[in-house]
Amino acid sequence: MLAIFDKNVAKSPEALQNQDGGSVCALKDRFLPNHFSSLYPGAVVTNLGSSGFIACSLEKQNPLLPRLFAVVDDMFCIFQGHIENIQILKQQYGLTKTATEVTIVIEAYRTLRDRGPYPADQVVRDFHGKFAFMLYDCSTKNVFLAADVDGSVPLFWGTDAEGHLVVSDDVETVKKGCGKSFAPFPKGCFFTSSGGLRSYEFPLNELKPVPRVDSSGQVCGVTFKVDSETKKEGTMPRVGSVQNWSKQI
Q1: Separation CA 68–CA 103 (nearest Å)
Q2: Where residue 98 falls among pLDDT bands split at 50, 70, 90?
Q3: N or C: which end of the chain has fewer CB within 10 A?
Q4: Residue 231 and residue 202: Cα distance in Å, rounded?
Q5: pTM value?
Q6: How confident is the model over 188-246, as pLDDT tens digits?
Q7: Which part of the chain is the DUF3700 domain (predicted)?
Q8: Using CA atoms, how far apart are residues 132 and 155, in angstroms rounded to an integer?
Q9: Residues near 226 by Cβ (< 8 Å), separated by ≥ 6?
Q10: Cα separation of 55 and 26, whole Å?
Q11: % of residues, the chain, pLDDT over 90
Q12: What would the DSSP string read from start to end of 144-165?
């Protein structure tokens, strides 16, 4: 799976943006989507207009951590892995017995967007299992990414030469688009366009960037660790219109 989001849609954490920049512009002339399609000829590539691209392939996948792709009401979502408490979540969100993990993620996001009763960290924390997912909502231009607490599903992200956000489970694809500005997506964390990167495992704590060093001893991107000594100033009030709340997820 691959997603490239314009920097005006998803501003990556400043620490992830390497001073040297990425090696290419991932969006120019569909460079990275075309590269992905060459690796996975059967991939479905969706043009999100000025917001970027999202692509999914069912080739070369781990049968124990399958990929699912769905589009519902202009919400595009790719899910990889499995959710252990899927039956409970189907009941919680009022879904049919045939609903899959990707459907649950979309419905959970819709609940958040339309002023559901729980904060975003609680919604993601309710997913028990091995998973990673990426979602884009065309109606609000909001990005929603997350990975489980153990990092069971490989997921990498970084920024290209122009600061656009690149996310994929294929590390070589991320490297090609981001150069040294790439890193594993943080375990137990989620990212949204407006809220940035946060830990859902420890929602009251700040995240601090820690430089990564590659095998040659050079700094290569950053990882983000929970800062046990720094607490967030406060929680986000759930007030305002539906449209305002969708911008605060």
Answers
A1: 9
A2: very high
A3: C
A4: 10
A5: 0.89
A6: 999 999 889 999 999 999 999 988 877 777 777 788 999 887 776 654 444 344 444 45
A7: 2-226
A8: 7
A9: 199, 201, 202, 205, 206, 207, 208
A10: 13
A11: 67
A12: EEEE-TT--S--EEEE-TT--E
User: CB under 8 Å to 221, separation ≥6 — which residues?
Assistant: 16, 18, 158, 178, 180, 181, 182, 183, 211, 212
Average pLDDT along the chain: 88
Distance, CA of 1 to CA of 94 (rounded, Å): 28
DSSP H or E stretch at residue 92: helix 86-92
Average pLDDT over residues 19-37: 83
* Rounded CA separation 241/115 (Å): 9
**What does each C-alpha distance from 229 to 13, 191, 204, 205, 226 come to in angstroms?**
20, 21, 10, 8, 9
Question: Which residue in 167, 241, 231 sits closest to 199, CA to CA?
Answer: 231
